Amino acid sequence: MEPTFEVTITVNGSPVTRRVPVRQHLVDFLREELGLTGSHTGCEHGACGACTLRVDGMIVRGCLMLAVQADGRRVDTIEGLSDSGELARLQEAFHRRNALQCGFCTPGMLIAAQDLVTRRPGATREEIREHLSGNYCRCTGYQSIVDAIEEVLARSSVPGARA
User: Fold this and answer.
1) d(CA 100, CA 104)
2) Distance, CA of 70 to CA of 29 (rounded, Å)
3) Is 144 domain-assigned?
4) SS3 of residue 106 by DSSP
5) Per the CB 3.0–4.6 Å rule, which of 60, 67, 77, 112 could disulfide with 29?
6) Which DSSP helix (H) or strand (E) runs through 156?
7) Distance CA 103, CA 115 (A)
8) CATH code at position 73
9) 18: which strand partners?
10) Helices 106-119, 88-96: crossing angle, 10 deg rounding
11) What value does the CA radius of gyration of the chain take, rounded to a whole number of Å?
């Protein structure tokens, strides 16, 4: 029997305490234990970005972080960020620009995009592409994704504008 460890993690603003296997990845904990299935498991090597989450304000790969490493930390998932309205401008722009197709990469892409919008409000197209370089999309060719993020950044820099 694999050893377990009790963790308390604040997930989307609510504290959660559970016993978890010491080798369980954070994304698997969120999906299997809490039913938060928005973050996906793709490559399970941290290369595709489908499992992107925010931990203590920084984006991380949920397939590379163990649930025990999140003990005492704040984890924001695509569900929490969407429900709070934090992603609304990006979601609307992704929809307008057809920046999502199959949707598998979209949760990770939106979290990475929000990180960029927050940290680099004056980012160029090249900087947008660089920031998203760890998030794979097999459907869109990235053009529409970059267009959507650029639209949000442009509207954010105009006083009174809503993206």
Assistant:
1) 9
2) 11
3) yes
4) helix
5) 67
6) helix 143-156
7) 19
8) 3.10.20.30
9) 7
10) 120
11) 16
Distance of CA 33 to CAs 18, 21, 145, Å? 9, 11, 31
Please report the pLDDT score of residue 163 as a whole number.
45
| Residue 163 in domain | no
- The single residue listed with the structure tokens 């990770």 is 108
pLDDT-derived band at 140 (thresholds 50, 70, 90) equals: confident
C-alpha 84 chain-centroid distance = 14
Q: Which of 65, 81, 97 is the last residue of a domain?
A: 81
The per-residue pLDDT for range 58-89, each reduced to its tens digit, is 999 999 999 999 999 999 999 999 999 999 99
What would the pLDDT profile of 90-107 be if each residue is shown by its tens digit?
999 999 999 988 999 999
CA atoms within 13 A on the CB side of 66: 12
Residues 9, 67, single domain; the answer is: yes
- Whole domain around residue 109: which residue ranges? 87-156
162 belongs to a structural domain: no
| pTM, entire model | 0.92
Pairing of strands 4-11, 74-76: parallel
Distance CA 104, CA 126 (A): 24
Angstrom distances, CA of residue 32 to CA of 20, 26, 91, 140: 11, 10, 26, 29
